[in-house]
Amino acid sequence: MHDPVEGGTVTVSDRIAAVETVVAAGAELGEGPIWDARSGRIAWVDILGRRIHLTDSVTGATESIETPLQVGAIAPRAKGGFVAALQDGFWVMGDGPARRIATVPEARPGLRFNDGKCDPAGRFWAGTMAYDQAAGAAALYRLDAEGRPTRVIDGVTISNGLDWSIDGTAMYYIDSPLHRIDVFDFEPATGEIANRRIAIQIPRETGTPDGLTIDADGGIWVALWGGGAVHRYLDGRLDQVIKLPVSKPTSCAFGGAELDELYVTSASQGLSDTDRRAQPLAGALFRIRTGIRGLPARSYIGV
Known about the structure:
Elements: E1 2-5, E2 8-11, E3 19-23, E4 30-36, E5 41-46, E6 51-56, E7 62-66, E8 71-76, E9 82-86, E10 89-93, E11 99-103, E12 111-118, E13 124-130, E14 138-143, E15 149-156, E16 159-164, E17 170-175, E18 180-187, E19 192-201, E20 208-214, E21 220-225, E22 229-234, E23 237-243, E24 249-255, E25 261-266, H1 273-278, E26 285-289
Antiparallel strand pairs: 1-2, 3-26, 4-5, 5-6, 6-7, 8-9, 9-10, 10-11, 12-13, 13-14, 14-15, 16-17, 17-18, 18-19, 20-21, 21-22, 22-23, 24-25, 25-26
């Protein structure tokens, strides 16, 4: 098949046969997969189901942790358990009783956290969105090692995927309705960002960009909500398209012993009865053996 990109066309392969179902969880809004090297499992969330799932990549056996509020994103915590972005702020989960690290002052009933990840220095970043998707109502936050949240980007609509370049000097970021992946200059020592610009423009007809991850070659993988696919971009150009048997993939992360398996979460949210019958795997966790290696997940170094 051929997909248009700025400056011409690129040939990509249809790899639907390579997609495996790890667990048909039927998640309402599966999100935020991350390889937990401590247990050799994929950790991911069902935002609306208020669950953190820990899935064995071989058997599909899944242990679930119930969260007191909707959970947007998690990351391993160096001191044990996970740091989690819940509806009102940042929490520790899975290491004894759930406890709140910090409340976000701007938290309100019509707003919730969405995607998040740790930066190269071990700070946890997560962004918000309004339930009604009001334009500019949300923000991106950075949680430092002392447990203090800082509002870094204002005027966001749906804060979504983010990750850092291999050398740690650039941060990639998605505000989904903009249909693009932006990049900032990043200062690893302080966590400061600057010089926002467009890295990749995503054509609207291919779907809405959601979660993303960076591989060991610097390729950017992005899940396309409504597009039924994951795209890989290399040097700013479309390199691969992997089709999925569901219309709403949400995010992706590399895992497995060699970090060469791409895990993809998905959603059943908003599907009609007809769509659900046509997509019985909506809400499943998938695996694609890409032959490309990812990077280890980063842990939160804080409280």
